[in-house]
Design a protein that fits this description.
With about 350 residues, the protein is mostly helical. It has helices spanning about 20-30, 35-75, 80-105, 120-145, 155-175, 185-210, 215-245, 255-265, 300-315, and strands at about 270-280, 285-290, 320-325. The chain has a three-stranded mixed beta sheet. The longest helix is centred in the first third of the chain and has 43 residues, at about 35-75.
Length: about 350
């Protein structure tokens, strides 16, 4: 965001390069060093747990994929073959998710001042696209089998489906709760849930074929499962695209923040030019202009900055906030709406058109 270069606190050596640097700034003003260290340790522990569980899911998914592919060919079951193709997609998606978690743990650099957190969102978006592709493939095959039913060997289908169900259920249980606040892990969990539902459908289909001989149940169940997977894929694509497009986080109403800041801080005369977005899952950033009385001293401004950072962190969960301070009346000529950019102003070092 362009405003990151305009912080009114730059003279204090507080460049906001990374959320952990923001935590250290709180040490000087509010004594929050313990909270910052505790939060960092908790995040590191959470990501380590997510990596280990994702690795186990990769192994489980790969094994089930091979078993179902062989079983599908031998039994002639569309549900098994479709689920094997779905598992292949999930296998690569889980590998991608695991790699993204590892990449996101890398430290920030000069060129990537926020680190590699966006890798998780990119992985979630790609996972969503792969889920859509798997959905379309299963639906196509289901229609073909409905028009031209083929013989299914229900005994082999049932045995393989039960093995797949047990393995997929174990994988889903591993990731249950591990994806809280993380779109990437949430996407991996949705993959495992989709696999589990697919296995349930295959088991049910095998039993129906065994006792009734109605073989069209195989593609019908496959199509129903595909639609459920498609719905989950749409939600994942929507949420990850919102983050990539730097949309306002769903839990925030940007119009409420200026009023709340003014109400809680008597020295603030005006709040404008506010932008709030999501860096990665549950990591929020904000830039805003704060108008103060002309007589406000540097010491008073710095003390206010510390209080404002604590305020938006506690009330809105915004861990990376940049405040540009100015005097009352300086806002004249500033735009009141969304950010606009003018290539003609690029030489001024900001590229932000007021």
């Amino acid at each position: 965001m362009a405003h990151a270069q305009e912080s009114g606190c730059c003279d204090h050596g507080h460049d906001h390069k990374h959320e952990h640097e923001s935590d250290r700034a709180h040490d000087c003003g509010g004594g929050h060093s313990h909270e910052g260290g505790h939060g960092h340790g908790h995040a590191h522990s959470l990501r380590s747990m997510q990596r280990h569980r994702l690795l186990l899911c990769v192994i489980i998914t790969g094994a089930v994929m091979i078993v179902e592919a062989i079983g599908g060919v031998l039994s002639g079951s569309l549900a098994l073959l479709s689920d094997s193709g779905h598992m292949l997609t999930d296998f690569f998606s889980l590998v991608l998710a695991f790699s993204a978690i590892a990449l996101a743990s890398r430290p920030a650099t000069d060129t990537r001042s926020f680190g590699f957190y966006r890798a998780e969102i990119l992985a979630a978006f790609v996972n969503g696209l792969l889920l859509v592709g798997a959905t379309l493939y299963i639906l196509y095959e289901a229609v073909v089998r409905l028009v031209r039913p083929t013989e299914v060997h229900h005994t082999g289908m049932l045995i393989v489906a039960l093995v797949g169900l047990a393995a997929n259920l174990a994988g889903a249980m591993l990731l249950m709760g591990a994806g809280h606040g993380n779109l990437n892990v949430r996407g991996a969990f949705l993959h495992m849930v989709g696999d589990t539902l697919s296995s349930v459908g295959v088991v049910a289909g095998a039993l129906i074929i065994r006792f009734t001989g109605w073989e069209r149940i195989d593609p019908i169940l496959s199509a129903a499962i595909a639609l459920m997977i498609g719905f989950s894929a749409w939600r994942l694509l929507r949420d990850s695209a919102n983050v990539l497009l730097e949309s306002r986080p769903k839990h925030l109403r940007a119009t409420d923040i200026p009023a709340a800041i003014c109400a809680a801080h008597a020295e603030v005369r005006e709040v404008h030019d506010l932008h709030v977005w999501e860096i990665t899952s549950s990591m929020y950033a904000m830039t805003v202009h704060i108008a103060l009385d002309p007589g406000t001293t540097m010491a008073q401004t710095e003390e206010l900055r510390v209080r404002l950072e604590r305020f938006v962190s506690e009330k809105y969960r915004i861990g990376h906030a940049i405040f540009q301070f100015e005097t009352v009346g300086a806002a004249e000529g500033h735009h009141a709406g969304p950010a606009t950019f003018d290539e003609r102003g690029a030489d001024d070092g900001h590229g932000h058109h007021h």
